[in-house]
Amino acid sequence: MLQLALMAFLASFICYFVQWTFGQPMIDQPICVGMVAGLIFGDVTTGIIIGAAMEAIFIGNVNVGGATSAEPVTGTVMAICFVTQMGMAQGAAITLATAVAIFANIIYSLIFNVLMSFWSPLIDWAAHTGETKNVFIVHFGGALVMNAAMAIPTFLGVYFGAEPVANLVNVIPAAVTNGFNAAAGLLPAVGMALLVRMLWNSKIAIYFLLGFICVSYLGLPMVGVAALAAVIVVVEAFNQLDLLDVKKKLQALRAGGGAVQAETQDQIEEEDFFA
Amino acid sequence: MSAENENVTQQGADTTEDAASEKISVSTKDLSHEDRKMLKGIFLHSFNIFAMYGGGAKAGASGFLWALAPAFERFYPDKERRTDAMVRHSSWYNITSNVGTFCMGLVAAMERENSQHPDFDTQSIDAIKASLMGPMSGIGDAIFWGVLRVIAAAVGMALCAQTGTILGPLVFLIIYNVPSILCRWCLTVLGYRVGSNFITKLEEGGLMDLITKLAGVLGLIMIGAMTASFVKFNCAITIPAGSGDPVKVQTYLDTIFKGLVPILYTLGCVKLLKKNVNVTWLIVGTMVIGLALGFLGIC
Q1: Are B196 and B239 members of one domain?
Q2: What is the pLDDT of residues B167-221, one digit of tens each?
Q3: Chain A residues lying within 8 Å of B166, measured CB to CB
Q4: Does A223 contact B155 at a Cβ distance shorter than 8 Å?
Q5: What stretch of H or E contains B248?
Q6: What is the phi/psi pair of residue A130, to 5°?
Q7: Same structural domain, B286 and B168
Q8: What value of ipTM does the predicted structure carry?
Q9: Which positions, given as ranges, span the membrane (chain B) (predicted)?
Q10: Do B116 and B194 have their domain in common?
Q11: Widest CA span of chain A, in angstroms?
Q12: CB–CB of B214 and A117 under 8 A?
């Protein structure tokens, strides 16, 4: 059990450390966590399938300055450990992982905002010495401490959770498994809703429906949808730029009067001509 | 269109042309060797910006100090002045990682001014830094977290959700990181080259709003497509139909609108989020609903 827990710790630590230390390459997104944990637990395919399912749920989970609603890495690693090592059903693992993600988030905001506050006097010290190499030591030393602290819950979850989970797996009735699968199917809706809210603007909201129809009725693959979206954005961009131009001229016309009027009059005639 | 643009540029030939040429240039060819070396340093160090978060009060401070270390070393060989600059910058900093380099380049340019002119107002550096955080993060989060990451994830997930191929995560990483790293470099140079009034100009011209809006269009289409792909609901109830086979309720639902329940459920969640319902409750609620549907044999 200790070995499994250490492997899980390693998977979490790699994801966190690379994400935060090397410019947020998004390796802590569940789809990549699935790859990393899959490689460590020796079943990349299952890892990635679970990772992709978790990605759909947590895609709306935007990590800005440590203020998140859920922290999916711990849950994803645990789910992959339980499925690949203990034969847990995927639907149940995903639902469990989602619950873990919410709980883990509380621990993470504590680490980010409270635990690491004890490190901030060191930042001041480094600044006051005026030596950039002291900044280096404080910064990267803190990175090791912070990311190791963030991976500890994964270790504990596997260390203490694996045995009860292994016992439970065999006695789950079909109705519960169905329920877990239904929950796993609906959970991505919350993730999508978070994204929609972020970009919502009633004037462009209808494009959400367009994307939906492209897949549900037209069956377009994602790359096809992205290409179509790119065309629409370019068309829209030209229209909007024209509109912006016209708006500016109108403003100039209203504000200027007299002398400016003569100049802008020319331009408006030209505008008419080119339109 | 083009004729009229020429018209405009001719009117303010001297001023606008200078500004325009500065605005678009992200090349380092005409910069000095020292400049290039420093910008490369800032670019590389900027990857480590959030390696350590530093708690609520000093979030991002050590990262910013580390990112600007090449500039401090270069402009303040005198230790006393360097210490002064570093202490000034050991404060809260938070801009979306891959667009924050604009702020770093800009601060480097201002520190250069400060090192050359003793009467330079150092408060203006802090002011610029603070005033950039809001708009830069807003646009950076919308484009990188809201759109690029979503497109990358959509393509990646579509590849591997069923098959589990390693191509999925790899494609995801490539689609996200190539533009991200390019943007990081270009904005480092841009920030160093242009004046601090660049963002103001963008905002006044209404371009900032336009970019946000177009990013929104792209994002919403992709999110709609993903909703159709990844939100799953399948009603298991069947209705006995006299002599023939029982009819699945799901077939009726599909006739009304294909994917009716997923889209309604998602839009319902949006509505609740807008009413400031906590996300955690939505997730817990969805779990409970899913489990209940399974227990009752509806799904």
Answers
A1: no
A2: 999 999 999 999 999 999 999 998 888 765 565 666 677 777 787 788 888 889 9
A3: 35, 44, 48
A4: yes
A5: strand B247-248
A6: 70, 15
A7: no
A8: 0.79
A9: 50-72, 92-110, 142-160, 167-190, 210-231, 279-298
A10: yes
A11: 87
A12: no
